[in-house]
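Workshop exercise sheet. Pairs work together: one partner reads the sequence aloud, the other fills in the structure field after running the prediction. Swap roles for the next sheet.
Pair: D.N. / O.F.
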Amino acid sequence: MSDDGPNQVNAPVAANPARNPATSGNAASQQIARSLRLLRKSIRVHLLWTRAGVIAAVLAGVVAAAAMLDYALGLPMGVRLVVWVFGVAALVWAGRKWLVPAARFTAPLSVLALRVERSEQGKRAGWEHKLTAALELGDDAGASAGGGSPALREAALQDLARSVQASRIQISGLLERASAVRAALALGAALGLGAGMFALAPKLTSIGIARAVTPWRDVAWPKRTAVVLAEMPGTHARGSALPVRVLLVRSDKPASRERVTASVRVRVEGRVVSEQDVVLSHQAT
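Structure field:
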């Protein structure tokens, strides 16, 4: 089988026909049908797990990448909104393409029986042409009218029951585990990346996720540089240079490479008469 599930379930295929010869054929067919329904449910669960796991891993990776890009470039709200719209549209498309079909997986029991017969487990157990035949004969055996003699159908069902009574459908052996493992690894890697980001910079990670997931909110990155006045200028003589000294207390680059500017405004009688920006020079301490 190409679908999988974590269930380690063994489902009995048939009952012992010797205990009740009159109903053993129908009992065998019903037991096979129950086993195949359990297999179908396991396939559905596995499909949902593998596909949802991959989608969640990709979503977490995209959010982390968007947050890091936003931190590096300082994306404006308009750009972040466009990215968010495309992301939501892609998520809806992925859900409709992969999750909805998985949730609606209802393969006919006859199709599942054929696939079980052709599997390695079915070949080893000698189920070829037997499970499907038992299902079809079981459906006809309870009908009041139909082609063939009911006695002949019952005899055939009993013969099929005797041939498979000791066998069991091992669901875990019919399901492909590789896809479930890949989904788990992808999701684990994405969660590990998120945990590492939170461990290294919890505040920045929270801000990045908020800006990526809810770009319309007024959430800003903290200032990457901070300066404070080394001393507050007091009364100053007219015509002489006014020294301005500041301390660089926070920066994401070496102080010698940081560009610090000061805005100088001159007011006369409460009115600004001149304004200019000056670049402060770095002095090693």
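Discussion prompt: The chain has nine helices and six strands. What would you look at next?
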